[in-house]
Write a structure and sequence with these properties.
Blueprint (H helix, E strand, L loop, with lengths): L9 H11 L11 H13 L6 E10 L6 E13 L25 E5 L13 H11 L2 E5 L11 H16 L5 E6 L1 H13 L8 E7 L7 H14 L7 H10 L4 H11 L3 H6 L16 E6 L5 H13 L4 E6 L14 H18 L11
Length: 362
Amino acid sequence: MSSSDVRLSASTRAALAQDARPALPHHGHGEPAAMQARYEAEHRWWNEGGPQVAWRADTLPTRHGPVPVRVYSSGQVARLAGCGSLSATELGTTAQFPAGAARPIIVYLHGGSYCVGSSATHDRLIRELAAATGAAVVSVDYTLAPGARYPRISEECEDTVIELARRFPNCPIVLAGDSCGATLSLGTWWRLARGPVAERIAALVLYYGEYGLPAPPAANAATAACESLGKPACNTDAMSDIDTADGMSPADRAYYDSLYFSSPTERATAPDTALLRTELRGCPPVLLAVGECDPLLADSQALATYLEASEVRVRLEVIPGVMHAFLQRVRLLPEAARVIADTAVFLAGVLGYSGVHALSDR
C-alpha cells in the first residue's frame, strides 16, 4: 500500500496490524460456511471489552419462518475490565429520556455482504450503540446467502420491523445498519413506505452502504473525493491493497453478490438495492457515515445528494483515514467511537431527548 496515495490514520494502521496477527486465510472466496467461520474468528478479539449491555436471544416471525434476534437493553451499563477505553458511554453520550417518553427501538441489520456476519460479529459495535443512545437494540440474524436468495433477506427484515411495530406500538423505530445492512435498512424503509408502519420509523442510520451507483460514476466520484481532500487520485493499486485487506476487492464483491443475487442485473435493477433510482421522498431523517478510504464512499455521497434533492433531512459524515467496516474496530479506533457518539447526538435531535454530547463537544 502506498501511503502517498491513500493516507490511512495511525489508528487504522494499528487496526490492520491487529487484523494480520491471527494469520487467518483471506475470507473473500470459499465455501460459505468456512467464510462465516473465518469471519467469526477474525472479529472475536474486536468484540472483547466495551460496555456491558445485557442481551437476550429471541425470535421474530416472518413469512420465511422464525428469524433469530438479539435484544440488547441499555438499562444497566457497566465497563468490562481491561479492554479498551474508547466507549461512547465514557464520552458522556448516554441519553436521558423525557419523563414518560417511550424508549426507541433501533433495528440493527448487520453487514457482511449478505453471506457472512451475525449479531456476534457485530456485538461490541451494537453494545456501544445501545449504551450511547439509551435505546433498545434488536439485532436481526437474517438468513445468510446462499441459504437465502434475493429477496428473502429483504423480506425477513421487512417482516421483523412489522412485528416489532405490532408488539411495541408506542416506541419510535430507527433502522440502522452497516455495509449491506445499511442497504437493507434503506430498502426496508422503502418496502414499508406505503404501509402503516412507515409512520413509526423515526430515522435511519446508514453506515457505509452500497446504494446502486453505477461503476463508472462511482470511479469518477471516488477520484473527485480524493482530489477534494488534497490527495492524488486514489490509484487502482493502492485502493486494491486496501480493498483486499477488508475483503472489498471488485472480485470479492462480485463473488458475494453471486451468492445472493441471481445476476448482476437483478442487483442493479431491484428497487430496494438500486436505491439511487428509487423514489425516496417522505423518508425520515438520515445519518450517513463512511470512511474516506472506503470503496463505497461515492455511494454515500451520491445518496446524500439524492436525498437532499428529495427534500429529506440528511447528514453526511466522511471520516478521514478509515476504511470500510471501521466501526467493528471500535476497540482501537477513536474514529469509530466518534461516529457512535455522533449517532447518539443525531438521534437525540430527531427524537427530542437530551443528555447527549458529541465527542467534538467535549
